[in-house]
Amino acid sequence: MLQLTHWIENHMMPCFYKQISGIDCPGCGMQRSFIELLHGDFIASFKMYPALLPVLFTLGLTAAHLYFKFQNGAAFIKYSFIFTISIISISYIFKLLK
Amino acid sequence: MENQNQGTSNQGNVNQQFNQQFSQPLGQQQLPNSTAVLVLGIISIAGCFCYGIVGLILGIIAIVLAGKANVLYQQNPNNYSEASLKNLKAGKICAIIGTCLSALYFVILVIYIAFIGTVLTAMPWGDILGKH
């Protein structure tokens, strides 16, 4: 686990957009936030990038739905997706205004 | 002999019940690509943050596949199961949202690069470099 965290810390993808313009893109902070989550620090992860947990939840829900075939899984995935997208947009706007 | 016959017929009944309860009726099959559309639609948000292009490509592929599958469904609505149709619709909506966001982001990126390019080409490089 520690080795995995270490490997991810040393192999982070650079953000092309941030390199050119110096402004954060909507996905910036996700990898740092994921590393905080791997360290077990939920609060720091949430402060760094609030949308990480909804994104992971949506991906997990999709995988579970494809595997177990829930009754109304598709509708849940849809609402979860819309929720995630709105969280991402709102947090990005807040980050830009700061 | 009779016992054996009874046993086999019982087994047949049990199998029939099992089929009715747990599996789809014969003749109903999954829509082609319904899971692929769902997965592509979900992944298209992940692609929309970092570069914009990835999400755009995935979303467009998902929408095209969903359109094809929808045409198939309209031709034979009874042939395909309802669960796969729901998957398809959810995937299509996710793909549309993801594509819109990535397209927006991509357009902003292109405008930004064009703006920087114009500024760089419009600057009097000859004068600046000549003075030194």
List the helices and strands and how they pair.
The complex is a heterodimer of chains A (98) and B (132).
Chain A lengths: L1 H9 L5 H6 L8 H10 L2 H7 L3 H17 L4 H25 L1
Chain B lengths: L1 H21 L11 H17 L2 H23 L6 H41 L2 H7 L1
Helix pairs in contact in B: 2-3, 2-4, 3-4
Low-confidence stretches of chain A: none
Class by helix and strand content of chain B?
mainly alpha
Task: Average the pLDDT over all residues of chain A and give the rounded result.
Answer: 81
- Helix-residue proportion of chain A: over 70%
Give the helices and strands of chain A as they follow along the chain: HHHHHH
* Main sheet: strands, sense, barrel of chain A: none
The level of helicity of chain B is: over 70%
Shape of chain B: rod-shaped
Our measurement of the CA-to-CA distance between the termini of chain A, rounded to an integer number of angstroms, reads: 35 Å
Order of helices and strands of chain B: HHHHH
What does the radius of gyration of chain A come to?
15 Å
| Secondary structure: number of strands of chain A | 0
- Which word captures the global form of chain A? globular
Q: How many alpha or pi helices of chain A?
A: 6
The structural domain count of chain A equals: 2
**Main β-sheet description of chain B:** none
Largest interface: A-B, 28 and 26 residues
Low-confidence stretches of chain B: 18-24
What does this structure look like?
The complex is a heterodimer of chains A (98) and B (132). Chain A has 98 residues and is mainly alpha-helical. Chain A folds into 2 domains: 1-18 and 26-49, no CATH class; 51-98. Helix content of chain A is 76%, strand content 0%. Chain A is globular and about 45 Å long. Chain B has 132 residues and is mainly α. Chain B is rod-shaped. In chain B, α2 runs antiparallel to α3, α2 packs parallel to α4 (82-122) and α3 (53-75) runs antiparallel to α4. Chain B has helices at 2-22, 34-50, 53-75, 82-122, 125-131. Mean pLDDT of chain B is 74; it is low at 18-24. Chain B contains 5 helices and no strands. Helix content of chain B is 83%, strand content 0%. Chain B has a domain at 26-104. Classes of the chains: A mainly alpha (98), B mainly alpha (132).
